[in-house]
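Progress against Task 2.4 (sequence-to-structure conversion) is shown through the following example record, which the project officer requested during the mid-term review.
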Amino acid sequence: GITLSGEQLAESQARAAAILAPYAAQPYLGHVLAQMAWYRAHDEVSWGSLIPHVTSVQVIAGQAIVRDCQDASNAWVVSTVTGRIIPGTVGYVRTYLVAVLSRGSDGRWRLVLLAHVAGPCSPVPSPS
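Structure tokens generated for the chain above:
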């Protein structure tokens, strides 16, 4: 893989934080940046696509709770060294997630928590 200096890593993290700032806030933003750094340090990158199947949305006083039974079967982690899928990283057809979003002072909704929930979920058709 490519080795980055500490300065380059800091610059890369700052750039990633700026790109993600309209979509995620702390503490989730810090988690995503740490995960990206971990992947980079291990010569790995996430790849593929996710299909959301939102099953419910609750909005309470500036926070939204979104439940999703997403199809992650076309998402995986790839080695940047070999270009191959890392065994055991392909997602599942029914991945149960709960996301919490908070409305910022600028009126934008930002992700503040994303959790995988153990157990089954049933997708509903997503609007086309």
